[in-house]
Amino acid sequence: MKTNYVGKSVPRVDALEKVTGQAIYCVDVELPGMLYGAVLRSPLAHARIIEIDKSAATRVPGVKAVVTGNDFPYTFGHMVKDQPFLAMDKVRYVNEPLAAVAADTEAAAQEAVEKIQVKYEELPAVFDPRKAAATGAPIIHENLERYDHSSMYKIVPGTNVCTHMTYSRGDVDKGLSEADEIFQNEFYIHPVAHTPMETHAAVVQHDPSGRVFTVWSSTDAPYQRAKDLANALGLSFNQVHFLSTYSGGGFGGKGAIVAEGIGVALARFTKGRPVKVVFSRQEELTASQVRLEAFLKLKTGVKKDGTLTARVAEITWDNGAYSSKGPEVARRGAMTIFGPYRTPHIRFVSQLVYTNKQPSGAYRGFGTNQVTWACEAQMDIIANKLGINPVEIRLKNFYQDGDRYINGQVMQAAGLRETLEKASQEIGWGEQYSRSTGALVRGKGIATTIKGTATPTDSYCFIKVNFDGSITVLTSSVEIGAGQKTVLAQIAADSIGVPLDSILIPNPDTHVTPFDFGVTSSRTTYHMGNAIRMAGQKVRKEILEIAADVLGANPQRLLLCEGKIMDKDSEHEVSLKEIMTKKYGGKGGTILGDGHYTPARSSIINAEHKIQWMGSIFWMWATHAAEVEVDTETGVVKVLRIAAAHDVGRAINPMACEQQIEGSVIMGISNTLFEEFKMDRGRIMNDTFADYKVASMLDLPVIVPIIVESHHSEGPFGAKGIGEPALSPTAPAIANAIFDALGIRFNELPITREKVLSALRERDPVQ
Amino acid sequence: MKISIDLTVNGERHQVDTTPWITLLELLRETLHLTGTKEGCGLGECGSCIVLVDGRPVNSCLMLAVDARGRQITTIEGLVSNGDLHPLQQSFIEKGAVQCGFCTPAMILSAKALLDENPDAGEEEIKQTLSGIICRCGNYKKIIEAVRTASDGKADS
Asked: Is ipTM over 0.95?
């Protein structure tokens, strides 16, 4: 089908507002009578709360409310309802919110917070999930088994294990016995912060009649957050009203109730006055959420020729003190630890364990970073030991069209090989090059990834064609920063047949825009794109029927393109605006089309009974190839070049795909080489950007984004997704390149210069 | 305690009565409602709050508003002139240099200060100048491209 916008790098529709400073983020929201919130946070990692004395705080001039867990005794949780809005009875991590203040000014709120007195009884704390899972560990949630939770997540009563899952397919003992070599390796991947430039924020107003909480938020899924809040407070869904703003970055971190919870607790007591809560950078780094830390063990049987015969995985994930989306990360992440490889016999054990640390949650990749780190590092170890080219061993084991996934789903694997071939070619894989100059040594590495999307999940939309021919698309997909509005507007324009600039997509409003599962799991282009395509086709049909009526023509002979209706026979052309004015000009009117997309009935996800949920309506494939230069005198690793090839199905907007790929590579370098929390008894010591280092413009390597288009049979114009898989192969590609350069394997992230230097010194002791 | 501060923002003179300890960032966002300037850390470590003071980039979270007395302040809201976008705003749109957009005002203003001083700035100079501004979307490649498009770029030829 000919398209005017799909497939083109049209500039982003939100760019003008953003370059002129007009875009309103959550931190910019200002309302009449607005109060400011501040939070008292726990100095201890694990303690019983004996007493909170707020009397001095309430006397600070300008203070309107001081709220503790006793005043607002509710808990929330997306998967396990384990988290109090404000600590009750116990604190479970350093910087957990204990009390909150709303005041006329930020300064008054801060002053009052400092005047709240708390008495604690300190309890033994545990920070390593492996120790927390052991018998005799301090119990963090004594009532764990009594918490409301989905039956999908198996809690182990009387322990700190929040989710335990095992799965096997085939016969791993048989598979291992068929192997020529068995590889056993252990890997570790560290927690990292999302650090969106806009910290967590919320403005909340409780209307004076007490019926509705209105929440301004830059969350990635307003429907999920409203549902969780309604569920926590015993309200109906329409009593928690979310209004989305622009978002200054999410990366999964805005996929939980964070500042919103504090705002709700305060707004309940401010007699209708709105309350604004904005996290400081220190609060963002220590008390929002982080990527799940994970310890991974892989045992893999391989034939001499590199064929995988069996793979056994054991993963222990750190949940932190509260579970956010940890349970689903622990399940969904574990499933793809076998990589994009045909493996006849597999088994995994995945356990998610509470510790006395900041909560863990969704982070760009949703578990894929963790498992890809282990899987792809081990593929390199295997290739090296067996003397097989790392590219060849991957090609040999890759899924092919028609192979079956671990739940029996038939794979659509077109695009996978192409990502590896193109990325390795671009990096000059196998070519001779000068490997060392003095102390500088170069190396190359590759890594591939598989990422599915949460399935089945639904998206709904409405398209309004207004009486003047302008179009409004009502969707709850937020613009998290990745170009959602642009890509959806392109799909709408081509589905209806109107100019891109006639389309407006307002920010979501849960009282108006219909359900969407959320801007997560790289699902928006595919799911909301499909819903918009359906709604677009409906309104297009109705426009043509109205035009036929107005013009006295046969609707079958009319075309709608770029907002112009043309009669194929007479070649007579009329604008959409003219048609709409003729039809509705007097009294007004609207053409309304709805769209609902669900993959639930697609044959693509057919799988074995009861485990269909493990599959995915589409699979995203990617390969990153890295070239690094290591300074053997200082341990500094410089990433010189990364070729990143991604099968996106179809690039609705190639420039937006490049943004995702290039941005992920930078984030990947940052996660792999620089970012690391320094902890002391549960306290994060590096809670500023000066000490928690993220990549800057000076760390930018040559990035070559490569877009592979395999055209998904049910995707809108063939599209799949891109946001999440773009990150996961970067870390193992860099580590594999460091191995190529030095012959030293790092199985634990991050790979800091100190680690590199100490490994070099261990290998080559100073004479 | 209130003091009076006289300053010029985007060509417009303002006389503001305020407390002596507020920062320029707070004055711009809260008193003048110019929310295009963003706070990312409040400690001068991320660059999100950069504005131009007498043409030079300054972390407005680290500057007291009183020190802006008599100075010319330019914020992102002041870059459009007679309805026309500044060439940097135009190139940021065209080259895809905007993702979430939170660092965009600071990036554009810093780049403007650089190009006003050296219209031929090349890649290395651009990187050095903008490296103090964190873009967590990691859009650095396209931001550099956008600034190069707006510069004469002679340094690279």
From this structure: yes
